[in-house]
Amino acid sequence: MIIIKSPQEIELMKEAGAVTAKILRDLRKFIVPGITTKDIDDFVEQSILGSGMIPAFKGYNGYPASACVSVNQQVVHGIPSKKCILLEGDIVSVDTGTIHRGYFSDAARTYSVGLIDPDAKRLIDVTQASFYEGLKFCKPGFRLSDVSHAIQTRVEEDGFSVVRDYVGHGIGRAMHEEPQIPNFGTPGRGPRLVPGMVLAIEPMVNEGTWKVSVLPDDWTVETIDGKRSAHYENTVVITEEEPLLLTTLDESLMMEV
Ligand code: MF3
Ligand code: CO
Fold this sequence. Notes:
The chain is an alpha+beta fold and 257 residues long. The chain has a single domain (7-245), classed as Creatinase/methionine aminopeptidase superfamily (Creatine Amidinohydrolase). Helix content is 27%, strand content 23%. The strands form five sheets. Strands 10-9-11-16-17 form a five-stranded antiparallel β-sheet. The chain has a three-stranded antiparallel β-sheet with strand order 1-5-6. Bound molecules: 2-amino-4-trifluoromethylsulfanyl-butyric acid (MF3) and cobalt (II) ion. 2-amino-4-trifluoromethylsulfanyl-butyric acid (MF3) binds next to loops.
């Protein structure tokens, strides 16, 4: 069952999302060569706690940190580590979220560490662009797989692939609610979108094959070919008109600057 949120609930989710959005914005300056992925997690955790909210990821299914920090060939769920030092030319995905008065936010970005090569830049940009292609279908009347199909089409246009094993999701009083939102599929399938649905839409895009595997730590997901991967996620509200982005700083901008 897809839980429709009331305007009051959406207000709380907006507040939750605003904190996540600001942290992801602040990370643009924080992420430089020489820091560790643990430094990123510390920054995220302190920021969430400083805002009076609860880190949504910490303790979730036993996850040990407040952010997932995934470097280069790592796709998602990288566990922050003091041993993992970011180097010039790396790309790093940070996924985090907050709980505010019982309501969740969830968002992710991929950052460049110093100067990166043009293919890495294109991977990051296409991942974000695919989210915004999907967003065009986040309106009443469209079906869920219209969103999925738009994302897949944009990604494959550039010769990249979408991860199949992990998907977006409904979000509200739990981080993961129905429906599941694949980043691939045939259009015209699945539930019709209606106002009050809140969805975490999150393309995970690989340079090479879509196939991934989980490391022995039981969390870190990597590409099987060792090529790089990028992630872009926002918490999105379906309204009568344009969708509302809860985890970007300027909701009037369709494309983040
Ligand atoms: N943010 C992830 C998602 O988008 C979930 C993170 S799992 C956790 O679904 F355990 F790290 F919290
Ligand atoms: Co998510």
